[in-house]
Amino acid sequence: MTASFRKAALLTALLAAAPLALSAQALAKPKTDRTIAAVDTDSDGTIDLAEAKAAAGALFDKLEKDRDSTLDTKELQGRVSRKDLKQADPDNDGTLTKDEYLTLVEARFKAADPDNDGTLDAKELRTPAGRALARLLK
Ligand SMILES: [Ca+2]
Ligand SMILES: [Ca+2]
Ligand SMILES: [Ca+2]
After folding, report:
1. What is the CA(46)–ligand 3 centre distance, in A?
2. How confident is the model at residue 129 (pLDDT cuts 50, 70, 90)?
3. What is the pLDDT of residues 4-60, one digit of tens each?
4. CA distances from 125 to 7, 37, 76, 84, 120 (A)
5. What does the alpha-carbon distance between residue 109 and residue 39 come to, in Å, rounded to a whole number?
6. Closest listed residue to residue 44, CA positions, set 26, 55, 32
7. From residue 107, how far is each of 50, 80, 119 by CA, in Å?
8. Coil/strand/helix, residue 120
């Protein structure tokens, strides 16, 4: 076998393998919901309450810029409507502590899970309730 023949054979093999590699990648990565991709840490394709709370806690810390341990309307950046804020804020100081924020996450999670199986799939996340929850997670 000459060197140039080997080179040609290698090139042919590479060219033959390339489309296969591409399609294998496409198969391995089905189009997932972006919220699920970001929040689904156990990679089962759905979001459970623990995953939602972990993501929400991380987002709370990210949004909480002035380090007063609460999120005010400015820090919330429209994630919670005035009406929802009032309901989620029992001490009525116009801001949410992390506990209040996570309680709101839990309420929105339950609202987004009408089949009550404790997980949210891509379809449930596309509903208005699912989208309202997603706003608190990322
Ligand atoms: Ca999961
Ligand atoms: Ca704050
Ligand atoms: Ca469900």
Report:
1. 8
2. very high
3. 666 666 656 655 655 555 555 555 555 678 999 999 999 999 999 999 999 999 999
4. 51, 12, 20, 19, 6
5. 13
6. 32
7. 13, 13, 14
8. strand
Q: What is the pLDDT of residue 17?
A: 59
The one-letter amino acid code at 120 reads L
Closest ligand to the CA of 49: 1
Top CATH class of 32-134 equals mainly alpha
**Closest ligand to the CA of 37:** 1
Phi, psi of 15 (to 5 degrees): -65, -35
* Residues in contact with 40: Cβ distance below 8 Å, sequence separation at least 6, in sequence order: 46, 47, 51
Give the residue from 83, 125, 17, 8 showing the smallest Cα distance to 136. Answer: 125
Whole-angstrom distance, CA of residue 54 vs CA of residue 114: 22
Nearest ligand to the CA atom of 38? 1
User: Which residues are found with C-beta within 5 Å of the ion, ligand 2?
Assistant: 64, 66, 68
What spacing in Å lies between the alpha carbon of 10 and ligand 1's midpoint? 42
